[in-house]
Write a structure and sequence with these properties.
Helix content: 25-40%
Structural class: alpha/beta
Number of strands: 14
Largest sheet: 7 strands, parallel
Length: 329
Amino acid sequence: MSNTRTLKARTYKYLVTGGAGYVGSVVAAHLLEAGHEVVIVDDLATGFRAGLPRGAAFIQGRVQDAAEYLDASYDAVLHFAASSQVGESVANPGKYWDNNVGGTLALLTAMREAGVRTLVFSSTAATYGEPSDGPLTETSVTAPSNPYGASKLAVDHMIAGECAAHGLAAVSLRYFNVAGAYGEFGERHDPETHLIPLVLQVALGQRESISVFGEDYPTPDGTCVRDYIHVADLAEAHLAALRVAAPGEHLVCNLGNGSGFSVREVIETVRKVTGREVPEIVAPRRAGDPAVLVASARTAHEKLGWTPTRSDLTTIVTDAWNFARRQPS
């Protein structure tokens, strides 16, 4: 799988877990456009049948049951299936250990038994917790502040052990703030917790106002700064990861644009792109919100040959807006 020339010369068969979700559906679409065979498995608990890209085969099922559908015909697995709500993970941590850790353990076991030896894992910046400085690198301290981040970090450790003991070729991609849309594929979370789609809901008249949690942070405009990356840039990193995955190695890469945008910058960009009113309300700070959370993507650039090209804020918001306007209210 590490030979780029070989990858381009033939069609590969990929299993995409969680491929009816936001990121999984965009990555699956990119794989199909590259001429590969894609099978999506998703239990549709948080994914959407409407998010399944045309041309992909679909299995409605749980990743915990991977042994029932995974066989030696697959060249690699791209693993997105997970519970991912921070607040829910605090209220119901058992769900996160079961779905994220238990599910991945079942998947790794099924892969080993089937002889499928390449994995790209959807990890998260939540593994770093609440850092006090940045930009964050892959060697930054990992101190998750909630069960969601802890479960993803546990999976990273599991994958590292599988690589060392059984020769798995694996890449973990730690996302920062994924945003934007890719044609018919975009964010459909229910409930929605991400800033850009929430602000777009205000612009669409589906929400009265957007809350700004704190305006006294040590940032240029007093609001929190976050690293946003376009979902299509993110998808290209997954295809690059398939090319470089090497037996017995676990590569970890942060994915971000290397700079950040403040909450107020996001709101103002939505106003400019949509031409709509976006009332805002200043609310108290939320516990645990760091002032700045920005990635260093140097490892991804050096190891994957990857550089984001769409992650300016105007492009991200424009693509997300075009998608949001096509959705039922």
